[in-house]
Amino acid sequence: MPARPTRRLLALAAAACLAAWSGQAAAEEVNLYSSRHYDSDRALYEEFTRETGIRIRLIEGDADQLIERIRNEGANSPADVFITVDAARLARAASAGILAPLRSPVIEQRVPAGLRDRDGQWFAVSTRARVIMYDKERGVAEGLVRYEDLADPRFRGQICARASSHPYNTSLGASVLAANGPERTEEWAKGFAANLARPPQGGDRDQFRAIPAGQCGLAIANTYYLAAIGASERAEDKALFARIGVIFPNQAAGDRGAHVNISGAGLVKTAPNRAAAVRFLEYLTSGPAQERFALGNMEYPAVADAPLHPALRAMGSFRPEPVDAERTNVNATQALQIMQRAGWR
Ligand SMILES: [Fe+2]
Fold first, then answer.
1. 180 C-alpha to ligand 1 centroid (Å)
2. pLDDT in tens, 158-179
3. 20 to 30 A from 28, CA-CA: which of 79, 136, 159, 294?
4. Ligand 1 centre and the CA of 281: distance in Å?
């Protein structure tokens, strides 16, 4: 029946004419490759579309796989913007040559220099601190003020942490390695592994949830996971949040500060929708977008004038270790080898 396809073609042609006539030809879009997995991000993309008419086509995946995919797609890649969590992976994306140096007065004015790549290949949209959590009912252990103290034999059998191969812990290990060198990091990792309460399992939330259950005295987790519990209206979450104390490590004068990791974004070198992509990247630093990261996902906003979630503010203020994405990336492999060799699997 040849009439059918013909009729469909005619209908398509008519629709195209109508769209062109009404000024709505081919809607602009941005192809976003992201390894972030938060509902608040989707809400942010929808807000951007409502404001600009530019559609966000989201391709989610593991950061290293997305980098590989963009490399393989080469000049034909539909990717416009790359977003990921973890400084080391941002540095890997830059060194893989998939990102374009971008000079944007908006981004440079909004995001502090310490949270941007020197060459403009990426910038941070938010940060989170990796902290030590403890049971307020048992009280804080005296002298537990640095990541280094977690290797002390008096914490034998007390620490709960997820696998060392998770980027959050690998980057923490890379930070310890950068500060202390391989020999002392090896000693630290051995002491830390000996202090584990159980073989690493689960995600960050599972570590501090095990504190009131009596399985661990101390947990390593990112701030935003606990703040999400603090933001919950459920009675059991409120009780959990009230019970967990937070230590921001390495705060003494002259010490390096608490380890923070970043989420960041960059323009893909081959971006087919470059202008729309730059508009989206700049939007990520805007008040409404920064508020999403801060109030929707309980992260520290990258932009100074954005608000903090009250649950995050309740944890107290701290001094972060300066972010050095390239150094984190360079140290990550060796740090992971050291941690695994020490028994922190
Ligand atoms: Fe996470």
1. 26
2. 999 999 999 999 999 999 999 9
3. 294
4. 22
